[in-house]
Structure formats: C-alpha cells, structure tokens
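hey so i finally got around to running the thing on that chain from the lab meeting. sorry it took forever, my laptop kept dying and i had to restart like 3 times. anyway pasting the input first so we r on the same page abt which one it is
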Amino acid sequence: MESSDTSWGFYLSKCTICRLGLPEPHCQTSPSDGWLIKVEQDALQRMRLLNPLCRSEFKPLPTTFPRILDLSNFRISELGQECILQYINYRPFANSIGDAGSLYMEKVAMRSSRCSSSRLDSFVLLTIHVSGKLAMFKSGDKKWTVIDDLPSPYDDVILFRGQFYAVDSTGRTVVVLVDSSPSVNLVANSVFGGDKKFLVESCDELLLVDMYLGVGLEDDLGYNGALDVYDEFDCLTGERTVRFKVFKLDQEGQKWVEVKSLGGRMLFLGDNCTFSALASDFTGCEGNCIFFTDNFFYSNREEDGVLKCRGIGVFDLENGRIDPLANYPGYYNLFWPPPPWVSSTVLEVRVFFWHHYV
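ok and heres what got predicted. didnt touch it at all, straight out
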C-alpha cells in the first residue's frame, strides 16, 4: 500500500439526486408527474439546482420559478447521491470549463455512520487515484491510502448494500474491505468488449453497464441507419458513444450475466454518479433505456438551458438506437423545463430543506 499526502486539504461536496413530485392531494389525480433534480448546498447554506448528470447549474430559471423553493411542499424521493472531492485553497478560473477543482476527477463512494459518543459521523471514502488504483480515506486519517491492486486501471466505484465495489476497465469486479487493512476480494471475472464500465444499483441489484466508444462515420458505429442523428451536428467524426451492454451480478457464480431488457427501469450515467429510476414515476417515460453524457451531443444554444455544458444521449435497449435527449420530448421534460406545478404549488416563502437530502 502507498499513501498520498493531503496536507493541503480538501473538502467533500455532496449532492442528492431527487425525484420531485406533486404534493398531496394532487398526486392522487396525477401520480406519475415528476421532475428530476440534483440539489447542492454551498458553503453559505444556499441551495443550487444542478443538472442531474453533470455539474452545470439550472440557468436561467423561468421568470415564474419561485425565488425560494420550499421542498417541504413536495413529495421527494431520493434516487442517489453524488460526492466530489475539491481543494480547499484552490479555485479554478471563473471562465474554466468543467469541474477543475476536483481532486481526482472521479466519482467518490462514501460510507458513514453516526458515532453516538461524539455525535459525529465517522466515514470512509473510496475513489480512483490518478494512477488508476483505488484510494481510501477514513475519518481521522491524514493521508490517502492507495490500495496496491492493479491488474487493470479501475473505472468505477460504488457503495452497494453497505459495501464498496469497484470495477476495472476489463470488467473485473472486487469488493473492497476497508474495516481493517484495506484489501480486495474478487466477486466477478472480466467482461471484455466495451471501453468504459459503470456500476449502477437498480431494484436492489448491482448492474454493470459497458459503454462502447467509436470513431468514424455512422455505418461503422452501429447507429442502425439513423442518419438523421447527424443533421443537428456540425461534426461527423470524433470519439462518441455507440452502444451499451448491461449485465447483472451473479455473486455466487462470480460472473456478470447479460441483461437484454431493463423493463420499466431507466439507468442514468452521470459524470460523477450513477442511479436508476422507475419510468412510471415520470410522465411520458417508457423505460428500458440509458441516459448518459457525451460531448458528441454538446450544444451551446441558449434555449437548451440544461443541455449547455455537456450533451445528454439516450440509448434504447430494445432497438439499440442512440439519439440526443432533444429527440425525446417526454424524456427531455425529466430535466427541463421545470413543470408548471413547481411554481403553482409553492404555498409559502421560507427556507426549509430536510437534512437527509443534503
């Protein structure tokens, strides 16, 4: 094992991805309305609404949007959490693009527990070091511990059923033991084929999403003849996502088993988080699809609002087709614009937010 000095300091930025729904009694007449948001609380205790799949803020908000959003007026379902490490004494330039202040530019998995004696949370953080190895930090530590296990660089980490899991670029998956001396145990052998692996929890199962990237014209990339995809973009070449495969963990057999359909589930692959949701909880959604960020779908048009940092693509598992989010009005409304009832159901102007969701 190795150690990485953190004497310069960092802080952990936490966000919560939520489904915002109509309050009682409105949900009885329209139970499937829903809006997908990511909420972050900054150092000044102000709330920011962010794109659920990246770090861009919802701007500009509609003029009818409430100046102070009281989330106690809505039904809130937590779908996932995002943790990012950021420097304390470093701030990126005001016009910098992306999350330049992040420590490792990778997703962080976190496990915490309440210490009754001190009334403080003890925690363990797991992320991917710039070397591709796993890095662990416990409350009370002064240095990162880098776990010396590197058959291949790691792609993703996740907290699942109270344990840390990590997958490398070949699909080899381990459970990370952190309670004593850090070590890893193999839980699934490699799944070769794709270029980047993601771990997603869905319906209390651990899924592996294998992303395939390609360079070239459409006929070489498997877009199933969907030539109209290119009509909206200036660039016909460059690396882009071309397809996905989904697997579920067979822990007893130590293998990944391919899943041909997600049914009514939707998977979301963000820049720093992954999560899933039921399509029936959102109006106009059918499920069996994957949402992901991709520079190929980048757009800076003002009317795109939420889409201005990185583009969002949608992969349909049934037909293998990839399209920009803008081609799916029902799915587009998951993100933007805010549904009209967000403004109409604000009953009072006060700042209130449940501690569980920050």
